């Protein structure tokens, strides 16, 4: 399968990518697009099914683009995700992976999965539009490969409270006759709805993204949402008037309640605003960050730099075992959240600064700062080359890499290996069951100075 979860088949040596097909299956498919070296096809008939094939429990799975792997046995998914990480390490990073029972090479552990891989998401963000047939307001995920919205009332990977809040918002919008946004004409009011739910606290935030400053019938919105959503703590409006697929605009204001909701991860309390980056799978986040702390191997005296620190989630996990943690993040609002979260938990051994990691950390180095451990948790594009160069110059004893993209992880590991570091072990973590995404935590040690 490809990294997107598409089956890879061959006909007389010609490669076809087939969504919905699984390894080992024989199928009949209809070619939809041809290129010189490869093509795309749709699955017409299943001739020989894989023993790992499931009947997807979601009624709209075949249309919705939210999940890619509901037809694939969960344990088999975990095995495939581990192999996907290995393939990137060997093919892109040119790294050696230890075989089962063999010495030498990087140890890639089994993927950490979920005991119950459903209802795990604490955040839902869906576009709002108009059904072409009925003209009714709809909200849900896009159909695969299109911008047609598949109306959704029940998503099996969302927390029940998220689903209920989305149903309530759509019902209120229809009752109040709020016009959905039309991305073709740029007209209409309601563009997106985002819901956040605190798994531990039960607190709910509803964010209405509007195409303009005015939210029609705002008092009725507030009254209705408060009446129908127990646990609601915050109603927020975000204004996005740009012709873009990006969900949020620059202006955010609280219409009712608090600017934030609160939640906890492993006993650490976090204030979460409308635009905060906060991992969507709480139980797996604890596993992910727990493994990062384990790989940091802290004794209580170390200086730790947390690059791409966001609202301070990993930083506060590290601060419980480090001498001092220095966090850097490019988004100023996130740094303010990080400072607030440190204060919220009485953490005094953490310092945060806003700016690009590849700019701030080199400056810290020039000012005499040292790091025993550097933790990086970059976006999908991976680490900036200037940051990797700074890591090699600072020469920490250990680097911990938290990755959401195995291909850029492998690329960056190659740079660190060529600079005198050794990749010791990797643990994939399934943060997004039933999708093709996989995260990984990597332990990297310095081998020379």
From TrEMBL:
Any one Gene Ontology molecular-function term assigned to this protein's record: 4 iron, 4 sulfur cluster binding
Domain TRAM residue range list: 1-45
Active site positions: 404
Binding site for S-adenosyl-L-methionine: 279, 308, 329, 377
Pfam families, A to Z: TRAM (PF01938), tRNA_U5-meth_tr (PF05958)
Keywords associated with the record: 4Fe-4S, Iron, Iron-sulfur, Metal-binding, Methyltransferase, S-adenosyl-L-methionine, Transferase
Any one GO biological process: rRNA base methylation
Family: Belongs to the class I-like SAM-binding methyltransferase superfamily. RNA M5U methyltransferase family.
Full protein name: 23S rRNA (Uracil-5-)-methyltransferase RumA
Species, as recorded: Paenibacillus agaridevorans
Organism lineage: Bacteria, Bacillati, Bacillota, Bacilli, Bacillales
């Amino acid at each position: 399968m490809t990294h997107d979860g598409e089956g890879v088949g061959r006909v007389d040596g010609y490669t076809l990518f087939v969504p919905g097909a699984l390894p080992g299956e024989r199928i009949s498919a209809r070619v939809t697009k041809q290129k010189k070296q490869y093509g795309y096809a749709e699955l017409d008939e299943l001739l020989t099914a894989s023993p790992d094939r499931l009947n997807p429990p979601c009624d709209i799975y075949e249309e919705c683009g939210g999940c890619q792997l509901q037809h694939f046995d969960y344990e088999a998914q975990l095995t495939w995700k581990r192999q996907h990480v290995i393939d990137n390490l060997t093919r892109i990073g040119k790294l050696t992976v230890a075989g089962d029972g063999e010495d030498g090479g990087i140890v890639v552990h089994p993927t950490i999965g979920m005991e119950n891989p459903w209802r795990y998401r604490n955040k839902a963000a869906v576009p709002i539009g108009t059904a072409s047939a009925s003209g009714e307001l709809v909200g849900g995920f896009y159909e695969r490969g299109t911008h047609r919205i598949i109306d959704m009332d029940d998503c099996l990977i969302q927390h029940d409270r998220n689903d209920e809040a989305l149903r309530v918002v759509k019902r209120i919008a229809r009752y109040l006759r709020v016009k959905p946004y039309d991305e073709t004409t740029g007209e209409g009011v309601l563009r997106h709805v985002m819901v956040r739910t605190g798994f531990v606290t039960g607190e709910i935030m509803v964010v209405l993204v509007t195409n303009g400053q005015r939210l029609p019938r705002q008092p009725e919105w507030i009254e209705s949402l408060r009446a129908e959503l127990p646990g609601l703590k915050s109603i927020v409006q975000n204004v996005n008037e740009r012709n873009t697929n990006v969900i949020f605009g620059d202006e955010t204001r609280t219409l009712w309640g608090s600017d934030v909701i609160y939640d906890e991860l492993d006993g650490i309390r976090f204030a979460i605003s409308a635009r905060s980056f906060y991992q969507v799978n709480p139980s797996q986040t604890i596993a992910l960050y727990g493994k990062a702390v384990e790989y940091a191997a802290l004794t209580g005296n170390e200086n730790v730099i947390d690059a791409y620190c966001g609202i301070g989630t990993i930083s506060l996990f590290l601060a419980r075992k480090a001498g001092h943690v220095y966090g850097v993040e490019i988004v100023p609002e996130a740094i303010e959240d990080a400072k607030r979260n440190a204060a919220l938990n009485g953490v005094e051994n953490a310092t945060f600064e806003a700016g690009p990691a590849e700019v701030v950390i080199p400056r810290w180095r020039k000012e005499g700062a040292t790091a025993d451990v550097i933790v990086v948790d970059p976006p999908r594009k991976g680490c900036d080359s200037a940051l990797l160069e700074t890591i090699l110059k600072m020469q920490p004893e250990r680097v911990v890499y938290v990755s959401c993209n195995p291909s850029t992880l492998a690329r960056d590991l190659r740079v660190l290996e060529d600079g005198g570091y050794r990749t010791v072990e990797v643990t994939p973590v399934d943060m997004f069951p039933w999708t093709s995404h996989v995260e990984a935590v990597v332990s990297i040690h310095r081998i020379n100075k």
